[in-house]
Amino acid sequence: MTDGRPVGIAKKRSTAVVPIRIPPDSPDAGADLRLSDVDEWGRSERFRTLARAAYEPVYSRWFRVEWEGLENIPAQGGALLVGNHAGAIPSDAPVIMHGIEKELGRPVYGLADYFFRTVPVIGTLWARGGGVSARPANAYRLLKEQGQLVLDFPEGTKGPSKSFTERYQLRRFGRGGFVEIAMRAGVPIIPIAVTGSEEAMPVLFRVPTVAKALGLPYFPITANLLAMGPLGIVIPFPAKFNLRVLDPIHFDVPPDQERYSKSRIMEEAERIRNLIQESVYDMLRGRRSVWFG
Amino acid sequence: MVQALEADSSMDMILGMGAHAPSVPFERAEFVRADQNYSILNRIVKATQVDTILHTFMVTNSVGLSHRAMHEINVIGTMNLLAAAGASGSSVRHVVVKSSTLVYGSTARDPSTFHESTPRGGPARHSVERALLEAEGLVRDFSEDNPGTLVSVLRFTNVLGPHLSTAISRNLSRPFCPSIFGFDPLLQFVEEDDVVRALLHVTRGKIPGLYNVAGDGRLPWSEVASICGTHLIPLSPYSPLKIRPLSRLFELPPELEDLLRYGRGVDTRRLSATGFEFRATSVGAVYSFIRALRLRRAAGKPSSSYTYEHDVEQFFRHSPSVSGPQDH
């Protein structure tokens, strides 16, 4: 205005921004942008390295774990490991997972009841350490598509919740779902017999009302609890662990079928249960001491 | 979306429809303002003889919406749309529906990865899930009743990108962000651009079917937060102890609360098998979002890269003083 130019142009000059075509932002696609190493199953190698270092003394000093038949576990390809499950907070799962990784260098994915996922902190740590919730879809993906070792306890919570008077008597093997998954994925089942787990944390009796109130699958009063007080919740007795890996069981059925014969599945499940039960009894016959094996 | 369609010269006519005026000017598309449940669509379809309908209006976020409004938009809107598409003598040959992986839910019982055929773990827990499931049911019925019409349903995971504002992106853009104590779920994201590209891909290729759409890879919520430079405020996981006023501070719709507990992963191999290539992974989507946000924080809202200027184009098209064809 003051320098005599028309108002309109002066305004345009001062405010209008010449539009520029900005190329879309593209962060370097080749670079690794991740900050953590948590994979699609929620496991973290860094966490697992720490956890393994922490568990190693428990494995070799406290439980003094001994294996036989480790050569039955394949060096590669999927296989479903199936064991007997015992002790109020069962130590057999970490012992098998740690042991196979230590001895054979293969990670094991432990299947656990989805209940674990609902517990704050524990659920997350369990997943970071290599635990997976026991859904057929998860087992299939691990076994068939990723060729991993998967550990399952077909007794479920019926195993750890049984009382000490019923020790080493295997419960029903679920509804045979583990057999069906192995058939569908076309992988062998490798039974593992475990002794020592019952004595590590014996269940004296159960309190169903407390379990119901807390929303837990079971609430055991353990010998550890009586002997050590609150520490007994986490500290097992130093029972000697012996594990025997049995011969792999292959199924002569084609994989990826819509359905498998239910009678065949139940038959195989019962056969595997008997195999594990027999070797547990056989190992107990040879065991001189609970603590020294 | 319309901008991307306009860029494709094989589309003869593009007609946009929505309850609000479009936020960007359209170059060649026309726009009709409709009410929320698309009740006038029937007449429009008859009048214009369109052959493809893209249904992208479904609400996947329950913030600030009553159950009834959600039902109105997702279920009744879809119903009207399908009714128009399925009317006798309808010209519609392809219906593309944008749905969400919310239909799978998010519970402790879930498998780690959902395939298109995996059923959800239990009944719908939240109104948005219920509305989406019901809408997808209508779509399924429609495709059975109209075998001559192609139906594509795309289930998108949580979208992150430079422009889109969702409950998750708004939480991440604040200095403090909610989490559920003791839970660190794995999440999968899809980049804004890939959303549009996926819709275009099925529209152009006339690819019917049900597809999950999500970037590759999953990352824990804590990692998303640290990439975005926000601090996680853990809320109590038990509802009696949940400090309600605290969760009011955050934008935490119930379906997001579930997601922050158990997360969700989907399998996208079926879409990839049709020849679609994702440009961004999940972590790439997070970066695309946060980099754009940083730019906005530092330089204000950048001018749109969409350089269509209405007046100039009108001049080129209609002014007698312009000689020869102009390509724009």
Topology of helices and strands:
The complex is a heterodimer of chains A (293) and B (328).
Chain A: H1 7-15, H2 45-62, E1 66-68, E2 79-83, H3 92-104, E3 108-112, H4 115-118, H5 122-129, E4 131-133, H6 136-145, E5 149-152, H7 177-185, E6 189-195, H8 197-200, E7 203-206, H9 208-214, E8 220-222, H10 223-228, E9 242-245, H11 262-285
Parallel strand pairs in A: 1-9, 2-5, 2-6, 3-4, 3-5
Antiparallel strand pairs in A: 6-9, 7-8
Helix pairs in contact in A: 2-3, 6-7, 7-11
Chain B: H1 2-6, E1 15-18, E2 30-33, H2 41-48, E3 52-55, H3 67-85, E4 94-100, H4 127-145, E5 150-156, E6 158-160, H5 167-172, E7 176-180, E8 186-187, E9 189-191, H6 192-205, E10 209-213, E11 219-220, H7 221-227, E12 231-235, H8 244-249, H9 254-262, H10 269-273, H11 282-299, H12 310-318
Parallel strand pairs in B: 1-2, 3-4, 4-5, 5-10, 6-9, 7-12
Antiparallel strand pairs in B: 8-11
Helix pairs in contact in B: 2-3, 3-4
Molecular structure report:
The complex is a heterodimer of chains A (293) and B (328). Chain A is α/β, with parallel strands linked by helices. Chain A has helices at residues 7-15, 45-62, 92-104, 115-118, 122-129, 136-145, 177-185, 197-200, 208-214, 223-228, 262-285, and strands spanning 66-68, 79-83, 108-112, 131-133, 149-152, 189-195, 203-206, 220-222, 242-245. Chain A has a seven-stranded mixed β-sheet with strand order 1-9-6-2-5-3-4, with helices on both faces. A two-stranded antiparallel sheet of chain A has the order 7-8. In chain A, helix 7 (177-185) crosses helix 11 (262-285). The termini of chain A are far apart. The relative contact order of chain A is 0.15. With 328 residues, chain B is of the alpha/beta class. Chain B has a four-stranded parallel β-sheet, sandwiched between helices. In chain B, helix 4 links the parallel strand 4 and strand 5 (150-156). In chain B, helix 2 (41-48) packs parallel to helix 3 (67-85) and helix 3 (67-85) runs parallel beside helix 4. Chains A and B meet through helix 4, helix 5 and helix 6 of A and strand 11, helix 7 and helix 11 of B.
